[in-house]
Amino acid sequence: MKSLVAIPQALLLVLFSATAISLFLSLLGPFFKDLDELSRILLRVLFYTSPITYPMSAVPERFAVYLWVNPMTVLAEGVRNSFVFGLAPYPFSYVVMLVSSIALVGVGMWLYSRLKGPIVDVV
């Protein structure tokens, strides 16, 4: 039962992280025209380096450390463990993801306060 409660928490964390990243990218978009192409490439790299289509057990131990840098790894493993194995996710990984999302929202809000005038001029 504890694992079923973790699924909405993981999805809310995905939503919060996606909002933070899109706020940050939408503020930089008018100034860097190639940001759209760069974000497509980076999203593809993040997808293939996150354990969505393969389990973490298939990754050699020496490379697994690098996969945990990817924010999608925390979310994919949490949802997989909840759905498939019925395990509750690691609380520390959720806390790290939440803190990094809050920090990114803070940077986005600060950037918005600094760039709202120049964005109007560029657009």
Outline the structure in words.
The protein has 123 residues and is an all-alpha fold. The chain has one domain. It is 77% helix and 0% strand. The protein is built from 5 helices and no strands.
Strand residue content = under 5%
Principal-axes geometry comes out as globular
Note poorly predicted spans: none
| Biggest sheet features | none
Distance between the termini: 50 Å
SS field, number of helical segments: 5
Estimate nothing, just give the exact number of structural domains: 1
The percentage helix is: over 70%
Mean pLDDT: 82
Instruction: Name the structural class.
Output: mainly alpha
Please give the radius of gyration in angstroms: 17 Å
The count of β-strands is: 0
Helices and strands, in N-to-C order? HHHHH
Summary of the model, kept short:
The chain is mainly α and 123 residues long. The protein has one domain.
Q: What keywords describe this structure?
A:
123 residues; mainly alpha; globular
Task: Tell me the layout of helices and strands.
Layout: H1 2-28, H2 35-48, H3 61-67, H4 71-85, H5 91-122
